Amino acid sequence: MPFEVCSASEADLENLSLLVFNAFAQNPIHRVIYPYGATNDIIAWNIEGDRRGMREDKNAHYMCVRDTDTRTIVSYALWYEYLHGDEQSNESMEAIDCPPDTNSDAFCRLDPIGTVKRKSIMGRRPYMYLADIATAPPARRQGAASLLLKWGIDRADASGIPCYLQGSPEGASLYQKHGFVAVDQVVIDLRPWKSPVGQVVNLAMLRPIGNPEMRSR
Hints:
Layout: E1 3-7, H1 13-23, H2 28-33, H3 40-56, E2 60-67, E3 73-82, H4 104-122, E4 127-135, H5 144-159, E5 163-167, H6 172-177, E6 181-189, E7 199-207, H7 212-215
Parallel strand pairs: 4-5
Antiparallel strand pairs: 1-2, 2-3, 3-4, 5-7, 6-7
């Protein structure tokens, strides 16, 4: 497939939301929080939240990879570019608006965990944050996710700031190829909701400023 990286538009939001649900259909955290899958109400809730993000959040970059033959979106990433630091780092967490058709208890208890960990590591320094990345299953291992990673990394290097993400151990090898190193763990305990996996241990990963290994490639 021939690919191109481009900014997503509001017209793409439904497709992006469905892509994410398909990509994470077997993810144990996703299955606990969204036991009913991609219902109409949850997709509509996601679209409205992302529409506000596109319009109001100057730090947010909704990026996608399209198949240039079909114009289909095959991969998506949400990068935040905190050039002046994360302005919310030292402020208290706002009340969480739990979406419809979810396990609201799981959502409200699990959703803040990653944010707390990120802010404890990154503080108020400037950085690029990869908040979300997903690839449609048929397009995996064809370089689409790498294009989205490179887009954010190139912006970070141009600004002289590090990159941060949280990912599964299964995805770690891809992130490591792009200069990320694990700096901590993010432990997600799913036992209160009888998940057969018990706990999920994701990785907090940091790509230092202008990673020299990546510059030499």
